[in-house]
TrEMBL record:
Its EC number is 2.5.1.58, 2.5.1.59. PANTHER family: PROTEIN FARNESYLTRANSFERASE ALPHA SUBUNIT/RAB GERANYLGERANYL TRANSFERASE ALPHA SUBUNIT, PROTEIN FARNESYLTRANSFERASE_GERANYLGERANYLTRANSFERASE TYPE-1 SUBUNIT ALPHA. InterPro entries: Prenyl_trans_a. Keywords: Magnesium, Prenyltransferase, Repeat, Transferase. Residues 1-21 are annotated as: Disordered. This is Protein farnesyltransferase/geranylgeranyltransferase type-1 subunit alpha. PROSITE patterns: PFTA. Residues 1-10 have a biased composition (Acidic residues). Signal peptide: none annotated. It comes from the Eukaryota. Belongs to the protein prenyltransferase subunit alpha family. GO terms for cellular component: CAAX-protein geranylgeranyltransferase complex; protein farnesyltransferase complex.
Length: 325
């Protein structure tokens, strides 16, 4: 049925289903691991009993209030069990249940299982059934604000889905600004900023503003991979799509290099920048070779083979005879 869990938060006065009069009509269905299981899992008696009855309910297709409560107990033991979540949705539809109650229930589950895919998927389905995302931004903000969850992939995916599906873009940049100000290396927040602006549109004014915004952050932390990636992403949104589309960024980057900064992200940007124009300028090609050598031998040794390849590839391209029509 699913993976076992040592967390059994059902209460010390929990009564086994086999001793409940209102469950006397149900015969539990044990898990069939075959005659010679490779690994026999030592389920606790409580876990085994709950899921034996869960299997029996699913087998008979019962969709009732007691079955709904049973799914709650099963998910308390194993919140990652896809089958139980799916059956719970089937029950909710059959009973025409109050889905607001389900959202309240999920608030608690997500608070305790913020990185559980199945919980977030269930939440999305319920929101779709209600056609209302009124509480999703607050929910995901709370999840991301919790210690250790600021880069929670599932929470960010759910937030983007809610924003995109229900057009909730209005205040998102303000939210992202706060996260970046709190942690300038929060790659998820930079990615969210790009997600929002991609929807709103990278006009020339927006591109200029975002380049200035990003350069100001790089001035504070020059070795910030997230900011450098965002800078390149914004430059690619210019009409030409080239890294030299902003003279200010070129001047800024070369100024950092001249001042002695050797951030691998700065060097990677300069390599890509000079490669774009190397066919027209042998001096720029030589800069690419020098920078690639520095990356391979000093600043990004773990990817030395890649940087050697970049240099060799450029040499090969430049050695080919030019063709004219």
């Amino acid at each position: 049925m699913g993976d076992s869990s040592d967390e059994e938060n059902l209460g010390t006065d929990w009564l086994p289903y086999s001793e409940r009069e209102d469950w006397a009509d149900v015969t539990p269905l044990p898990q069939d691991d075959g005659p010679n299981p490779v690994v026999s899992i030592a389920y606790s008696p409580k876990f085994r009993e709950v899921f034996d009855y869960m299997r029996a309910i699913i087998a008979k297709g019962e969709k009732s209030e007691r079955a709904l409560k049973l799914t709650t107990e099963a998910l308390n033991l194993n919140p990652a069990n896809y089958t139980v979540w799916q059956y719970r949705r089937d029950i909710l539809r059959e009973l025409d249940a109050d889905l607001q109650d389900e959202l309240d229930y999920l608030d608690d589950v997500i608070r305790q299982n913020a990185k559980n895919y199945q919980v977030w998927h269930h939440r999305r389905v319920i929101v779709q059934m209600m056609n209302c995302a009124q509480w999703e931004l607050e929910l995901t903000q709370n999840a991301l604000d919790n210690d250790g969850n600021a880069k929670n992939y599932h929470a960010w995916q759910h937030r983007q889905w809610a924003i995109r599906t229900f057009n909730l873009y209005d205040d998102e940049l303000e939210f992202v600004n706060r996260l970046i100000s709190e942690d300038q290396r929060n790659n998820s927040a930079w990615n969210q900023r790009f997600f929002v602006l991609k929807h709103l549109g990278f006009t020339p004014e927006v591109i200029e503003r975002e380049l200035l915004y990003t350069m100001n952050h790089i001035r504070v932390i020059k070795n910030n991979e997230s900011a450098w990636n965002y800078l390149v992403g914004v430059l690619r949104q210019s009409p030409s799509g080239k890294l030299n589309s902003s003279p200010e960024v070129v001047q800024f980057s070369e100024g950092l290099y001249t001042a002695g900064n050797r951030s691998p992200y700065l060097l990677a940007y300069l390599i890509d920048l000079y490669q774009e124009q190397a066919n027209e300028n042998n001096q720029l090609a030589q800069k690419v070779y020098t920078l690639c050598e520095d990356m391979a031998s000093k600043h990004d040794v773990i990817r030395r083979k890649y940087w050697s390849y970049v240099a060799e590839h450029l040499k090969t391209q430049l050695s080919k005879p030019s063709t004219t029509e």
